Amino acid sequence: MGELTEADRELMLMAIRQLEFAYAPYSRFHVGAAARLNDGSIYEGSNQENASYPLCMCGERVALYNAAVYKPAQPVESLAITIKNQNMRIDKPVSPCGACRQVISEYEFRHKQAIRILLKSDSPEIYELRSVEDLLPLGFNGTFL
Ligand code: THU
Questions:
Q1: How far apart are CA 115 and CA 55, in angstroms?
Q2: From first to last of its 145 residues, what are the pLDDT tens digits of the chain?
Q3: Per-residue model confidence (pLDDT) at position 13
Q4: SS (H, E, C) the chain
Q5: Superfamily for 6-144?
Q6: Residue owning the nearest CA to atom 10 of ligand 1
Q7: Closest to 31 measured CA to CA, from 39, 41, 20
Q8: Cα 52 to ligand 1 centre (Å)
Q9: Distance 10 CA to ligand 1 centre (A)
Q10: How far does residue 124's CA lie from ligand 1's centre (Å)?
Q11: Where do the domains of the chain lie?
Q12: Which listed residue (44, 60, 77, 108) is catalytic?
């Protein structure tokens, strides 16, 4: 955390705060996310589970959809994601699931701007990715439709 810029530290702290608001009684795996838009505003999200398991919604997507409904014209500049597994310590940054990679990719495509991704788990190390393309190469997007 100490090596992050002030703005990135603030973003990651907001993602960490979101861990408290996750609703994850089934998996006990909490995910917090915070998206900073080009105008500097920050929109947060956490995972929201359901007894009907396929309805569970990932924290990254809640944050991105939250940003999209309030600031549809603002590109997402950075997305901080963190996790807390209530059952065990996780010592390396956890990376977004495939569905979330596809959704992050959609917002890059929508705004024609790369989204920086910061990943943190229990260990102090943070991974920084310059774009979702680092996680989802050769992705499917609207250019094919
Ligand atoms: N989850 C996320 O919020 N983001 C991911 O990228 C992976 C999984 C959530 C969904 C579910 O509530 C819990 O973590 C366990 O899969």
A1: 26
A2: 999 999 999 999 999 999 999 999 999 999 999 999 999 999 999 999 999 999 999 999 999 999 999 999 999 999 999 999 999 999 999 999 999 999 999 999 999 999 999 999 999 999 999 999 999 999 999 999 9
A3: 98
A4: CCCCCHHHHHHHHHHHHHHHHCECCCCCEEEEEEEEECCCCEEEEECECCCCHHHCECHHHHHHHHHHHHCCCCCEEEEEEEEEECCCCCCCCCCCCHHHHHHHHHHHHHHCCCCEEEEECCCCCEEEECCHHHCCCCCCCHHHC
A5: Cytidine Deaminase, domain 2 (3.40.140.10)
A6: 58
A7: 20
A8: 14
A9: 23
A10: 21
A11: 6-144
A12: 60
Residue 60 appears among annotated catalytic residues? yes
Q: Residue 133: how many CB atoms within 10 A of its CB?
A: 16
The span from the CA of 28 to the CA of 21, in Å, is 12
pLDDT for position 82: 98
The answer to whether residues 133 and 139 touch, using CB atoms and an 8 Å cutoff, is yes
Closest ligand 1 atom number to CA of residue 48 = 12
**What is the rounded CA–CA span in Å between residue 68 and residue 61?**
10
pTM equals 0.97
